[in-house]
Amino acid sequence: MSNIELDSHTPKGKLEDRWTQHKFNLKIVSPANRKKYTVIVVGTGLAGAAAAASMGEMGFNVKTFCFQDSPRRAHSIAAQGGINAAKNYQNDGDSVWRLFYDTIKGGDYRARESNVFRLAELSSNIIDQAVAQGVPFAREYSGYLANRSFGGAQVSRTFYARGQTGQQLLLGAYQAMSKQISEGTIKHTSRCEMQDMIMVDGKAKGIVSRDLVTGKLETHMADCVVLCSGGYGNVFYLSTNAKGSNASAAWRAHKHGALFANPCFTQIHPTCIPQHGELQSKLTLMSESLRNDGRIWAPKNKQDCDTAPEDIAEQDRDYFLERMYPAFGNLVPRDVASRAVKLICDEGRGVGHAIDGKKLGVYLDFAKAIAVLGLEAIREKYGNLFEMYQHITDEDPYSSPMRIYPAVHYTMGGLWVDYNLMTSIDGLFAGGEANFSDHGANRLGASALMQGLADGYFVLPTTISNYLAHQQPLDLDKHYPEAEQALKRCEEKIQALMNAPEPQKTPDEFHRKLGQIIWNACGMARERGILEQAIIDIQQLRAQFWQQVKITGSDQTLNQTLERAGRIADFFELAELMCVDALTREESCGCHAREEHITKEGEAQRHDDEYSFVSAWQYSGNVSEPVLHKEELHFEFVRPTTRNYK
Ligand SMILES: Cc1cc2nc3c(=O)[nH]c(=O)nc-3n(C[C@H](O)[C@H](O)[C@H](O)COP(=O)(O)OP(=O)(O)OC[C@H]3O[C@@H](n4cnc5c(N)ncnc54)[C@H](O)[C@@H]3O)c2cc1C
Description:
By secondary structure, the chain is an alpha+beta fold. It has helices at about 20-25, 45-60, 95-105, 115-135, 165-185, 250-255, 320-325, 335-345, 365-375, 375-395, 450-470, 480-500, 505-520, 530-550, 560-585, 610, and strands at about 40, 60-65, 85, 160, 185-190, 190-200, 205-210, 215-220, 225, 260, 265-270, 295-300, 315-320, 355, 360, 360-365, 400-410, 415, 430, 615-620, 625-630. The chain has 3 domains: about 35-265 and about 410-470, FAD/NAD(P)-binding domain (3-Layer(bba) Sandwich); about 270-410, Succinate dehydrogenase/fumarate reductase flavoprotein, catalytic domain (Flavocytochrome C3, Chain A, domain 1); about 490-610, Fumarate reductase/succinate dehydrogenase flavoprotein-like, C-terminal domain (Methane Monooxygenase Hydroxylase, Chain G, domain 1, Up-down Bundle), CATH 1.20.58.100. The protein has 16 helices and 21 strands. A 5-stranded parallel β-sheet has the order 5-2-1-9-19. Strands 11-17-16-12-13 form a 5-stranded antiparallel β-sheet. Strands 18-10-20-21 form a 4-stranded antiparallel β-sheet, with helices on one face. A hairpin with a 2-residue loop joins strand 6 and strand 7. The protein is globular, with a radius of gyration of 24 Å. Flavin-adenine dinucleotide binds near residues 76, 165, 245 and 285.
């Protein structure tokens, strides 16, 4: 285990000048020399496609990989609601400083000020970039770009393309990437999964990939590696993430020395379609944008929980978010809304199907908005979301309220990165949801697309150029024994999965059980005893997994069971670290609600004196003995206070 020096390389000086000054201080590779350098980008969702297209445009050799059959199928296409930017088109008082403040406060003061300010500053450039690419953002009648409101903000700064913002933005980034593919600066490989890192002299110098159709393992060398491989919400089995989203690329880098930051910071989104049955394998988000017009309520009286919502009189309805948080009402941040919904259901006032004897649902009601704005206006704004709800539930949300319940949605934790988005491994960068930066303990709605694209279009191309300017180009024709060793490790791991001693159960059976353990222990509420037990349960189930996992078919052909097994093996290790992290953080902050640290009013109780730091975990060689490093957070421009949305 090597010693790690945790330096965020955060610039000093006036906050608003830091990024500009930093960029000026960074070195640039001369255009004539750029083609001598090769950059590997793993993942071509919004963050990866944006980074690859930008670096290709600059003239670097870029090699990109994704496991889907096209970059256009990355999980980013699922993003419905929108992307934040401090344009102040509404003239409602928005500014870079306000977006910065809302994001720091929304994250419950567990993010770096310098990074968040840079994000707010770059937000406007992203919109300009996307508009130039032809992304069809919604517009006002006058032609101006339209905005709507998202949680945790009192201004309207969310740009959107109906309920398909991620898809439209990804088409823009993919187009930019395709241009570079045709110009020969990007070489892209789909249906290919990174299996491991290749380290040369302690630096990230390549990856081992597996062709998912033929099973062939290959090595690829480069001057640096960028992981934009997305988030790990699927560790919970049930989540709003695409089923393929996984932690493997990040986790395998972690095992080579990349610190994993704040692994227990997981966002639970308040408005998802409730779970319907025990064997369900996926949950569906209903976009936060719906909270602009939808009102959340539950019956005041338990005896009304089985009554049809239309038959419950107005005075018997509890619009609990409006009651508890009058200043922000239905637009409180996600962690606050999710906890409130849980509280109501724990009180026995939930509605809908019972899971394990408990009704887990509350209403999201558009009756008032339809009465005031008219059915057509609501259809125009949210039509495709309403249709999706109706397809899944067979209920008409125009005539009866939707039912919603919180579900796992996003992971704020991820690979620790410094201000340059470099991990603790020299030459390994991470962008988008794969890194931990910018959102602290809770991400505000519409800020993930903003961060992924800020990282991809603007930050990574600049900081990677600087990194490469300090390196001699790698001799790609040389033989690297490290590459051979990495390939051999991957072969052995695949064989261990294919040939478990007593094959009995599918990978999914293990995953479902793991999901239950981690959701109960490290979901919306966390408690010492339950976390301690979960760690033991995870260790036991993991041992059983390696003994009993049953993978049919061959490793030389398309085999999705094998793909899943590899990802689940990593989830088992990450899940344990999440519980250890949650156990170590003896406070509540943002999404992290430790039952022992909740105020009388049910709000998160932070302990800034002891826990104002980023937890950055190092792999010690033994998954069950991670080493904690702390990056202290310093607040020079915003004073951490108790979050108040009342
Ligand atoms: C339903 C839903 C709705 C959302 N709506 C919004 C919204 O309205 N606004 C907002 O800001 N955010 C939203 N989010 C969050 C946001 O969509 C994501 O955080 C963001 O798109 C992640 O982008 P990314 O580029 O980091 O990763 P992804 O889009 O997940 O891309 C990951 C890439 O990595 C590749 N990959 C992964 N592992 C490997 C491997 N081992 N080898 C090779 N390739 C690999 C994949 O193939 C893929 O190309 C939403 C999330 C969900 C689940």
